[in-house]
């Protein structure tokens, strides 16, 4: 009898424990459902932007635009061409897009004070760019800009940069292309990757006073370059999410793309730290005239220095590589432009037969057709396709669009280059002659052609970037024919990123020109 009572007692206790756990689970689920319902009701009362049912927002949220367009930027260009004021509002993103030069002038010059980068933009890129020049406003931006502008304006640094580019061309890029051409017509190169490596070497030497070959890294430099690309791509994707709370929650939980982004940034941090370490290691043994040395003389915070290094890498590597890749993709479809470039180079050289190794790059400034061709390429394929600011206060744009405080306002350089109202009925045609008058290059307003921004934020590295790209164009076009394989400038496919990147790279076949063959 006693044994039966004990068994019964144990059974009752087990049942009670089981019920207790089940009741607790029921209460937990009920509480979670109640909280979720309360949040949903609160969101319904607030009518958040993603409930917008206008055709533009519906097409964005459902990605139905992809049925007709290969790239989001092409869809935006289509919308802006049809908009009466060349301005559209994508409510689900809280973003006003414009391709109106008057509005660009308004943002970058007339009301510059009302259109900073803004806290929302800085939050999106904070993990990658930190407090670098492209992600700050106010005193932080002004300090970095003044120091960099003073250095880049120096005749000594300009001469040094020209020598670096000439050396990289002579010792690395041209031999690489020559080697690729000597293996016959079947060997392919990813030109986008080649130009990224070239631009990275140049920016390390010019801005940091270092040869990448001296860096003591735990992985091949290509692994760090891939991490840089991944960080750029995933940071850019944050801005395309209608509800920023989604990526913030993923970052908090360290899952999905946010985990991948964190891993990539860890490698970027290691690369930047090694650059800073090597710069300190060289110390007085180096000239100290590079940009990083100047910043290190004023900043003792390594995290801040890291942000500056990453920003200069982004500016010097990605934008130059993007501009050059697009240029040679266009040139592959327009051999007549390559022929015109060679004619100009021979003419400027005084009728002599120049080669990439012997050409005097001081004469680049006399090459107006090369300059025009480069600007025309960047009109169609700007390295930075768009740029956003956030309204610090309520405003009305020149076309009458009301902008509420906190609204993101984006001028779209890619779309502006494809506006018939700005460039005529042949706006989709690659025609360098549109930039020439009497054989001389004639620039356009920076608010009609905002590839280098304009006003107070105009790109301080513009002249350096143009010199570098023109030098590469002249050297490569003189010595080689570059043919894109299974790629065309007429229907490109872009990958997400802070700069324009061609999805899958740009495979090319390189052929050495007959007159450049060894005698």
UniProtKB/TrEMBL annotation:
<keyword id="KW-0472">Membrane</keyword>
<keyword id="KW-0479">Metal-binding</keyword>
<feature type="transmembrane region" description="Helical">
    <location>
        <begin position="23"/>
        <end position="44"/>
    </location>
</feature>
<comment type="similarity">
    <text>Belongs to the cytochrome P450 family.</text>
</comment>
<dbReference type="GO" id="GO:0020037">
    <property type="term" value="F:heme binding"/>
</dbReference>
<keyword id="KW-0560">Oxidoreductase</keyword>
<dbReference type="GO" id="GO:0005506">
    <property type="term" value="F:iron ion binding"/>
</dbReference>
<dbReference type="InterPro" id="IPR036396">
    <property type="entry name" value="Cyt_P450_sf"/>
</dbReference>
<dbReference type="InterPro" id="IPR002401">
    <property type="entry name" value="Cyt_P450_E_grp-I"/>
</dbReference>
<keyword id="KW-0408">Iron</keyword>
<dbReference type="GO" id="GO:0016705">
    <property type="term" value="F:oxidoreductase activity, acting on paired donors, with incorporation or reduction of molecular oxygen"/>
</dbReference>
<dbReference type="GO" id="GO:0004497">
    <property type="term" value="F:monooxygenase activity"/>
</dbReference>
<dbReference type="InterPro" id="IPR001128">
    <property type="entry name" value="Cyt_P450"/>
</dbReference>
<keyword id="KW-0812">Transmembrane</keyword>
<dbReference type="Pfam" id="PF00067">
    <property type="entry name" value="p450"/>
</dbReference>
<protein>
    <recommendedName>
        <fullName>Cytochrome P450</fullName>
    </recommendedName>
</protein>
<keyword id="KW-1133">Transmembrane helix</keyword>
<feature type="binding site" description="axial binding residue">
    <location>
        <position position="459"/>
    </location>
    <ligand>
        <name>heme</name>
    </ligand>
</feature>
<keyword id="KW-0349">Heme</keyword>
């Amino acid at each position: 009898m006693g044994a039966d009572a004990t068994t019964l007692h144990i059974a009752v206790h087990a049942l009670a424990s089981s019920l207790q756990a089940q009741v607790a689970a029921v209460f937990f689920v009920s509480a979670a459902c109640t909280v979720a319902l309360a949040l949903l009701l609160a969101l319904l009362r607030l009518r958040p932007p993603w409930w917008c049912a206008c055709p533009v927002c519906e097409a964005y949220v459902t990605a139905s635009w992809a049925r007709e367009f290969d790239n989001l930027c092409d869809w935006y260009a289509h919308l802006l061409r049809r908009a009466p004021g060349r301005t559209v509002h994508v409510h689900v993103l809280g973003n006003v897009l414009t391709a109106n030069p008057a509005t660009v002038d308004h943002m970058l010059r007339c009301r510059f004070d009302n259109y900073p980068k803004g806290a929302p933009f800085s939050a999106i890129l904070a993990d990658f760019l930190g407090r670098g020049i492209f992600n700050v406003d106010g005193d932080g931006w002004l300090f970095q800009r003044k120091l960099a502008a003073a250095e880049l304006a120096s005749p000594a640094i300009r001469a040094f940069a020209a020598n670096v580019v000439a050396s990289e061309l002579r010792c690395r890029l041209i031999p690489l292309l020559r080697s690729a051409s000597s293996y016959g017509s079947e060997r392919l190169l990813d030109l986008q990757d080649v130009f990224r490596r070239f631009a990275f070497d140049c920016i390390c030497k010019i801005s940091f006073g270092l040869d990448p070959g001296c860096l003591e890294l735990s992985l091949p430099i290509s692994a760090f370059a891939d991490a840089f690309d991944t960080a750029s791509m995933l940071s850019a994707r944050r801005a395309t999410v209608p509800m920023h709370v989604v990526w913030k929650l993923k970052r908090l939980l360290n899952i999905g793309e946010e985990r991948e982004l964190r891993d990539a940034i860890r490698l970027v941090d290691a690369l930047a730290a090694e650059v800073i370490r090597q710069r300190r290691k060289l110390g007085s043994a180096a000239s100290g005239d590079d940009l990083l040395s100047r910043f290190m003389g004023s900043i003792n915070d390594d995290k801040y220095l890291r942000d500056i290094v990453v920003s200069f890498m982004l500016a010097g590597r990605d934008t130059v590589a993007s501009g050059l890749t697009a240029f040679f993709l266009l040139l592959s479809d327009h051999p007549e432009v390559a022929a015109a470039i060679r004619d100009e180079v021979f003419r400027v050289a005084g009728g002599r037969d120049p080669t990439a190794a012997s050409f005097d790059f001081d004469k680049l400034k006399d090459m107006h057709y090369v300059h025009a061709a480069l600007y025309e390429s960047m009109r169609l394929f700007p390295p930075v396709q768009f740029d956003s600011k956030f309204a610090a206060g309520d405003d009305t744009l020149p076309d009458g669009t009301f902008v509420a405080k906190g609204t993101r306002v984006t001028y779209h350089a890619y779309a502006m280059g494809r506006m018939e109202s700005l460039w005529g009925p042949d706006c989709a045609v690659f025609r360098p002659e549109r930039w020439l008058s009497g054989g001389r290059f004639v620039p356009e307003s920076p608010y009609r052609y905002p590839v280098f921004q304009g006003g107070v934020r105009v790109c301080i590295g513009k002249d350096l970037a143009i010199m570098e790209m023109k030098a590469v164009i002249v050297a490569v076009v003189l010595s080689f024919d570059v043919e894109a394989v299974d790629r065309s400038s007429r229907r490109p496919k872009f990958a997400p990123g802070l700069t324009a990147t061609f999805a899958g790279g740009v495979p090319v076949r390189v052929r050495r020109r007959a007159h450049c063959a060894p005698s």
